[in-house]
Amino acid sequence: MRVPAGWRRAALPSAGLVAVGGLGYGLTKLSDSDAAANWAQLASVALAVFALLPPLISSWRQRQPGGTSTVEQIDRAERTLRVLVREQWREEIVMRELDRPARLPVRWKISGLDVMDRGDRIDGERLLRSWFGLGRVRFDGRTDRMPEMAGRFRKLARRRLVIIGEVGMGKTTLAVLLLSELLKEHEEGDPVPVLLSMSGWDPSAEPVHRWLARRLRENYPALRASGFGPDAARGLVTYRRILPVLDGLDELPRPVRSRVIDALNDAAAVEALILTCRTSEYLAAVGADGGAPLAGAAVIEPRAVKSADVIFYVLDRLAPGQRAGWAELLATLKSEPDGPLAEALSTPLVVWLLYKVYIETRANPAPLCDSERFDTADAVTEHLLDNLVQATFSAATPDDDPGERHEHDHPFRPQRSWDPEEARGRLAFVAHHMSEAGSRDFRWWHLHRSVPRRTSILIGGVSVGLTVGTTVGLVSDAVVALRSPHAGSLRDALLFGLAGGPVGGLVGGLTGGIILERLKGYTLEPAYANLRWRGNVTGLAGQVALGLVTALPVGMVAAFALWRVAGMSSEVGGLVLYGLVVGAIGGVTLGLNKWVTTPLTNDRPQGPVTTLRRDLRLVYGRSLTFGTALGLAFGVAGTLVDGFSGLLRGAEAGIAFGLAGGVVFTLTFGFTGASSTYLVAVAMLRARRRVPLRLMTLLEDAHRVGLLRQVGPVYRFRHERLQDRLAHLYHHPGENR
What we know:
Strand content: 5-15%
Largest sheet: 7 strands, mixed
Number of helices: 25
């Protein structure tokens, strides 16, 4: 019988919990020491038990949602998703400067390649599909006339479209513009268009419907809100409430591309969709052994941008005083339509590069007319790519007015000033890191892969072990010396803590490092944390109540077991008090943990900065919670034995141990969070002059000025050629044409 994945993830910490309980039982049965010593042993067992709770809760949190949302809940989720997607792309389109009225016109036509399904499956049964050819599908359009293209898309029999083209021809741009137009003029019953990067997907390992639902939950956390039922994302996919806009089929490995097309053809839950891919890669996927075109899909490809359109685009963006300096370049475009400059500017990517490097910075473009220096179209493109980052950051004015009290609320200006050359060097390292990983997505929780694993584990194990050992040693010995009825010297206790604590901590840290080294395939994912009180107090109360209902019986059972095993108290009143307090502490802890990981229905889409901040809140908030609970549990235990006499002394000991526990859990379980591994990696890479300490601020500013684009919780370079060129410059830093 197959064991469910959630139980498999919980098996190791559960086994550890049983082992710790057995160890504690054995110690107390074999020990002849007094009650204070028994209390110390009990404290050690409790420490281990609390240490195993976070993995258990993490496993609980990571399980796939179960159950089915109702139709009414799915309807509400669909309306919310439409609003979230519209807000997300409204800002992104402005950042990409795709909202300008005089947009560069890129013309698209139906592909002449043998990559399409039968015409009647695409356009329906028609006697005349055009005035110029019987039986042919027509799908012409321009990016500056998007309402017409959206109307043509709606007339397709299955509303399936494949956008192919060579590098730099604007496939993703067209997909984004079409998504925006479909959202703007949506009709009753239209699904919600959602753009998803295909990077890393293999349908043989994760079926279409499961992958779509997972990506929806990751990118739009509001769909996980309790108000939408147990699994609204799955319901949206199952009931065909979304229109997947799948970007980057060419980024998948060659064997996977054909499997993706086959999986989309077989997926009952996917009807309408838009797919982008480079021409050669799509042709190879369709023509492979056993390959087939996307069923019922029209396939369109772009035409080269005309020189006349480029000239009009440039003149429209030049300031009155700039036009004289551009006369030579514009004349070259007219007189040499087949020259290297005109050939380079026949792609939307290079036209955009020209705007960013020369028009926006008001630089003189005369060097581009040097046919000896730029004798090929690639030479022109590489020159513009090499100078793009410096030009963009030089032209962008930071939103850092000290007279304003807001925190950089301008969405299209950088938050701080960056040295242009330094910014290019840091982004070149990021591009190199992504290329080494074979990915077009920058996932901040994967940055640690750029750091030697053994070095990071050694440094982390030593630093964490020493800090934890010293803290625990000092606090524990100080509390015992100050509050124990037994005679003892505070000075001797502190010296013992300074001597023994670091040694024990160092051993434990290195041992943990060795264990992590053995778990090489283990990958942390960012977690969710929502600490907003407004509109969420009811949810907090409900989760705490549920936690109490769950934990109080467990606390009573644990109290009875410890009473029988450790002889904690001979009075029933003490037993009941211990069970109630420990159960209450555990219930509040579990309730808080569940509350912070439950999204609200109005949560915005997850961006990279948002996911990092929320993961930090969750990791350190959870560490503080468990540390405080640990200290309170120790204090309660101390009041019920002879180790501490009286409630006051037990409370004082609990506070002391709570502070120590907060440090311990922050430094141990804090460093097992995705955000913590990211911070450690940034610190190590900063020491090697690879990235700035405020790396995420640099990336967010690069996104604001248009060098990066944001797709859910990941960053991508504006174009893959920019990533490839920066990665090349990382190896050849002196190269600059």
